[in-house]
Write a structure and sequence with these properties.
FMN_Rdtase-like_dom, four-stranded antiparallel beta sheet, five-stranded parallel beta sheet, 9 strands, Flavoprotein-like_sf
Length: 328
Amino acid sequence: MKVLGISCGRKLGNTEILVKEALMGAENLGAEVELVRLNDLNLKPCTGCNACVVSLLEKSSSGDCVIKDDLKFIEEKIMECDGLILGSPIYEKGPTGLLKILADRMGPSHDVAFRMISKKVREEKGITSGKPVDERSFKTRSASLIAVGGSEWDTLALPMMQLSVISTHMDIVDKILVNWTGLPGSVLFRDEIIERARKSGEHVVKTLLKQEDRRISDEKERPEYIGEKGICPICHSKLIEIRNEDKNYPAICAVCGVKGTLNVINNKVKFEVSKEDSYHAHVYLSGKFEHGDELKNIALKPNPKIEELPKLMEKYKNYLSYSKPDKK
């Protein structure tokens, strides 16, 4: 069993300390552990070219990204691992920008449903050319998220970190939010946080040890979650969007996308999700397959007037030149 730690913070900063403590807990229970500092990698932003989606859904191929940088390195580490400890400092209420870049690059290219579709069509059509998807995509993984901030400007941190692993279908078994650690190493004076991080790493391993069948399936009971319970009963997010100010349904979970009814009952906020609506949650394969169908049948479906596109584009081709810094 291998547990990977990804630290998005500075070398030996508070985030890295907690990630390492969690890895120590995992190692203590027999796991092989490894640590990657995201800042050591060269990761370029996603260009939105859709090459990965076309590869998966139209060519029944691997979905590899066409950008040449260090994505292959971190992709291999993630595919290889069974458990993940993901830690990030909090900047402007969210995790680091480099983690968002990784999330954008891993998103569609590593979406489990897209990869399942690619594999199924490839097998049905007997396709032998090209590169198939990585079979390791279809094993269950457990993950713990650790967000570390200097104040309570933290609203988007854990939700965005959770979104960074949602496409790979990892089971989030713990989430930790640590505030008031603005100075280097200050977390080391908070014994309860250090102990909490170690417990989190141990729980990732315990979760995996209980799973005799590691194949991804919506039919299985979800692993125990030991973090603070959120409002969403499915993904434990506290971030709920109100779409219509005069209606309490549908309210939307900002992380798993499930629709629910938001009420206040006995002075307590309740986000209630029906069984029918739960199938659409993005943390379930059913929700991911639905997303794949939407892309294939709507977003990636050519417009009937596609032949008119070159003429329509002429208006924008020569409008303004790009402002760029002077080269020295």
